[in-house]
Amino acid sequence: FWKFSTFSNPNPLLWLNPLFRIGSKRRLEEDDMYKVLPEDGSKRLGEELQSYWDQEVEKATKELRTPKLTKAMIRCYWRSYAVLGVFTLIEEMIKVIQPVFLGKLILYFESYNPDNAELYEAYGYAAGVSLSTLGLALLHHLYFYHVQRAGMKIRIAMCHMIYRKALCLSATAMGQTTTGQIVNLLSNDVNKFDEVTIFLHFLWVAPLQAAAVIGLLWQEIGASCLAGMAVLFFLMPLQTIFGKLFSKYRSKTAAFTDSRIRTMNEVVSGIRIIKMYAWEKPFAALVNDVRRKEISKIMSSSYLRGLNMASFFAANKIILFVTFTVYVLVGYKISASRVFVAVSLYSAVRLTVTLFFPAAIEKVSESCLWSFSLMQKFLLLDELVKAHVPLTQEDKKEASVEIQDLICYWDKVSSLLIFTSLLQSSLLSTVLEELPAEKGVIKVKGELTYASQQPWVFPGTIRSNILFGKELQPQRYESVLRACALKRDMELLPDGDLTVIGDRGATLSGGQKARVNLARAVYQDADIYLLDDPLSAVDAEVGRHLFEQCICGILKEKPRILVTHQLQYLKAADQILVLKEGHMVARGTYSELQQSGVDFTSLLKKDEEEEGEKEEAPRSPRNRTISQNSVRSHSSSVLSAEPVHTMAEETRTEGTIGLRMYWKYFRAGANVIMLILFVLLNLLAFYILHDWWLSYWATEQRKLDFHSTNITANGTNGTNTNQELNLDFYLGVYAGLTGATIIFGFMRSLFMFNALVSSAETLHNRMFNSILRTPVRFFDINPIGRILNRFAKDIGHLDSLLPWTFVDFIQVFLQIIGVVAVASSVIPWILIPVLPLLISFLFLRRYFLRTSRDVKRIESTTRSPVFSHLSSSLQGLCTIRAFKAEERFQQTFDAHQDLHSEAWFLFLTTSRWFAVRLDGMCSVFVTITAFGCLLLKDSMKAGDVGLALSYAVTLMGMFQWGVRQSAEVENMMTSVERVVEYTELESEAPWETQKRPPPDWPNRGLITFDKVNFSYSSDGPVVLKNISAMFRPREKVGIVGRTGAGKSSLISALFRLMEPEGKIIVDGILTSEIGLHDLRQKMSIIPQDPMLFTGTMRKNLDPFSQHSDHDLWKALEEVQLKAAVEELPNKLETELAESGSNFSMGQRQLVCLARAILRKNRILIIDEATANVDPRTDELIQKTIRDKFKECTVLTIAHRLNTIIDSDRILVLDAGRIQEYDAPHVLLQNQNGIFYKMVQQTGKAEVASLLQTAKQVSRVQETGELILLAGPAGADRWGFKHTST
Questions:
Q1: What is the DSSP code (8-state) at residue 37?
Q2: Which residue has the higher pLDDT, 197 or 823?
Q3: Where does the UniProt annotation place the signal sequence (predicted)?
């Protein structure tokens, strides 16, 4: 369409006009965009490049070499891209021919004779200048449009390939890369293609153009031109050196940026834990440290850029100075036509030789060496190859899984992955072909489906998460919802099952996610169901429902493999397989195993002596987690109609960016004095005086020549008439002006870069501090991708793109003012046409910016889903592959890409629409100037004509570039706006206040809740209602309640994650009066989702470095992790993998326990910590807590009643209110009570055991209290309980 409109229509890109009309009236929405062209579709482009890459891999394998991504790319795109070189060639030829017309026109004025009939020729030359200007306008934009579109296509194809590769990475490959690195490939590295395609053709066009210019200059000024060209060619390698250095800094910066984004990802993911531990400061130090290194590299590369830009602007002046100094010193006389032909020719070649050619070298070296190698390395990672054997009807009828002599390794290479022998999960991974068999046979007959141990949901509606690509069958769907206990949840959600769940399912509780995850597997009509521990994320009542109605109900006709450590369900199993230490130790029915004498229940308990012997071979407890990043616990499950967070829409500001935003931006990096200094530098570094002096010199020389010619003609004696101009004076002034221009130009450039990069540094720090201090609610309603986008994309703009664009704009803007000033001083009446041109330009700019800004904002917001989809796919990789849904996820990714391409394509074309019109205006200006000079031929001096015309011609590309840079600055200021928005977030209470508690507070551990109400947001529902309770010193209290009763909200209130109403008093101090850090550091928590952070083991245990090595090892020994850590390559100094993924879930939980031991606080909160681990680890944790925390007040939230039945008292919550609060045996006597009913639901054997324990506790408490009467002052009841039990 565009091709047609350019060549056959004087007004290109007319098809965009309706869009601009809409944009000028209202804000543009995604629906207003044009559909992506079929040839730009993500699927088509990706598959095309993939086929070339596959061929290259095949060929390289035969030739025993590494496949080269560049080869595949060249084969795929060289034809279409090579054609575009023709446009550049013609454009650069016109640029060289135009100064020839200009020279002829000035020559006419030099030898002007009113009687001469050369006027028509002069009009011809003026027309030549005007037409070449118009030709340049059209060709330039045609070329740029096509190369940018070529870059876009390559980028889209690469993104498609990267995502496709990510979907089939093997377990080993996943260990060699991180989510952060893959996201970075997609967000930063592929963008290099957009840049490299623009400049690539200049690698061969520039030398050709330089040769043509040398030829023309030789004709004009002889050998002197070689001096100028020598300077030009000296500048070329200089620019290339700058490019190389820049590349070096760029790769160093990229490494720091990666590291910063990875840390930010962990901070945002684990913000709840960071806040509860009061670890904001060490994390701030960690991020600030990386950021400082990153900024020092950015500052260095910015100074390089500053020098580069200043040398580019000064190059012309130096070249002219050298050329004409040599020219006059050799003895030639200066003339206007020679001066301005040289000026124009140098201008034409300078841009290509000193800017585009080095840029091409820089981009090629940066893209090919750095980004290409990263992408190539990623594309060559190991893939998981699954054998897709077609299933017969017979297989489906006799569905089975057969395993013989199986041996598997997770990763034999990496010493860090020793731990991950995740027994039962590994077995399922093998069945799913995720874990390759080293030896042995595994045969699967039938279609598999899988519910992962770590519940995974993707952004979309709940219904789409359950259907997972299947057709909706209302009857089956309803029965699945009922079987998975989701019916009630759906009724309470705002939009039922059409409620949208955000990133990582942050709007759902852990229990809800687990049930949606199970429902997805159940809804698939498969032959074999693999269920990896779906019951431990839910409480006993829901667990029983799921087991009876779902696993043994709706699925009863199908083979099911269930991983569990809930022993009450074993009787219902047809076969039981007991695994231990990676070996099968028993197999059979429940009764067979009982008769065989294998005490398989004790196999799941901790065996003290054996533990001692096998300390050196660390075993990895079962790792079941509720939701990797959502530490919301079950407090937002809706059995009691508690709120579900809905994701807030990403804000998109409207209208222009006010001066206030620019002021905030500048003030962040410079003070007022610096800003005044900057204005002065700009005025001093004015380039025009330099050229005006040349013009004045040529005119004076002309006058002198004319004068002496006249004298000679009149026959006067020529003895003392042969006057010469004072060369020393003219050259001296010229040298002075050149020197001043260069010095002030460099100073200005460096100064501006310094100020703007400092602004980026300040704004990043403010935004990060603001994020750390904002309440947790912010992270619940904003997806991770959105927050990280500000730290990656927006800060990236502030760091490098915005300073460069801003400095460029300022320099170009000053030059444009200079051009108009010169033209109007020569031909004052030129201001008459300039005024309407200016008015129409201002109108056009406003008209364009309204639409362009919206297009840019839509482009930013349509980019986020691409990243979100990638990161959520990587989290649910096992599930996606088990369901064979790779193709569908690839299609969704392509759809996200296509939506982004629509916005990007509009961004390209709207920019061209604007630029073509601006260059059209410049052509009018050049035409008026050229013909205006001829109309006023009688009063014009040749020097003035030369100055006015050569400047008017340079206006061509420069004017539209300057205006587009101003628009680009305004577009990029949206990044500043987005960052500033995050610097002004609502802040939680101060970390420290004037009122500091005593150093030994709390020394008793008495906690009192007095009429406490709690809500997660000011306008949200109240989730704790009128809570009044007292937790006595050294008391052990269990907190129970159905999913969503408000258990975790009680802890959130205690830690003031949101400010509660009412009073919470700890040891006589009102918690709301002290700082958050003073409060949170004095309470220890073992959270439901144990988070380990990238960094050393030492940093994970003790981020403030407050403890000695001896203390750290002792704590590790107490939680039985000492042997495991000793086996790590650098022991305590070993760097952990992302999120501590080289530790099992149970081990991560033990690290959290070690942290609590180290803190030695009087108050310990355990938030469902043992829901995630097997009974052996659970018992170890319970035992450690009984031993190490007997002097402490311990509050334990638990799903498993056996973990809290031996508490002193139990608090029962329901719907945010306290229903019961007493000793366990007292509660169990009330048969109508909630606690009694919860115990009854655990199964007969468990009920008997729980009742027995409760009685024992009550007896111990009575005897313990009797002994206390007779015992010494320090005697301790908890200790008695422990010994008696």
A1: P
A2: 197
A3: none
